[in-house]
Amino acid sequence: MRAFSLLASSDRLCLRFTSRIPRTRGLGSSASVIALGLVAACRVLGDEPDPERLLALGLPLEGHPDNLAACLAGGVCLTWEGRIARVADTLPLAPVAVIPEAETETAASRAALPQEVSHEDAAFTAGRAALLGAGLAAGDPDLLAAAFADRLHEPYRPSPILDAIRADLPAGAVGATLSGSGPAVIVWARDLEPCARELEERFPQEQVLPLVVTPEGAG
How far, in Å, CA of 70 to CA of 195, rounded? Predict the structure, then answer.
């Protein structure tokens, strides 16, 4: 409602929506409903949604432009200084989410990060970020798999599930990453079905959810 009201009056309106994204798991649920409110207001006004304009409007509510940009533009996006570049429509690896019952408040998770990091850790992660962008833009699974290491965020957000998966990757998987601020984990697979099946067997208490990319390129 707050996002909707940035563009249009909500007086005498009753809005109903369904969100299937688990909340407080690091899966972008807050960005998705902010994007929904902004786009719904555009539809009410008869305006064509402009992702960069809506990003600027919604950023004070969301706080993270990368989350909101992807919700607004779909596909694989880069964002900087209010700009959005959609660099790929599809993924070279299949993502499988492992979603625990535990919840994480984004603000608390961000507060756990240190104010300063070593030059070595910053340089390491910058190199992996370059691999990540190149692998996604080129659709190269090997480049993408090489990018699944981080020293800025994951070391300060302990995840027994992530540690267990990385220590023994399931069949068909090439790596795993923390999803956002956690605690959900994304397992990246060359072969989706055997990976998801093994994860279900190993983590019966968690929700294992293969993530399918739509033909339009949005997750």
Answer: 26
Specify the DSSP element, H or E, that contains 129.
helix 119-138
Confirm if 177 and 186 have CB atoms less than 8 A apart: yes
pLDDT per position as a tens digit, 119-164: 999 999 999 999 999 999 999 999 999 999 999 988 888 899 999 9
**Measured distance CA(219)–CA(216) in Å, rounded:** 9
- Per domain, the residue ranges of the chain are 2-88, 94-122+151-210
Rg (C-alpha) for the chain, rounded Å, is 18
Tell me, which fold does domain 2-88 have in CATH?
Ribosomal Protein S5; domain 2 (3.30.230)
Give the span between the Cα atoms of 198 and 19, in whole angstroms: 27
Q: The pTM is what?
A: 0.88
Tens of pLDDT, residues 10-46: 888 888 888 888 888 888 889 999 999 999 999 999 9
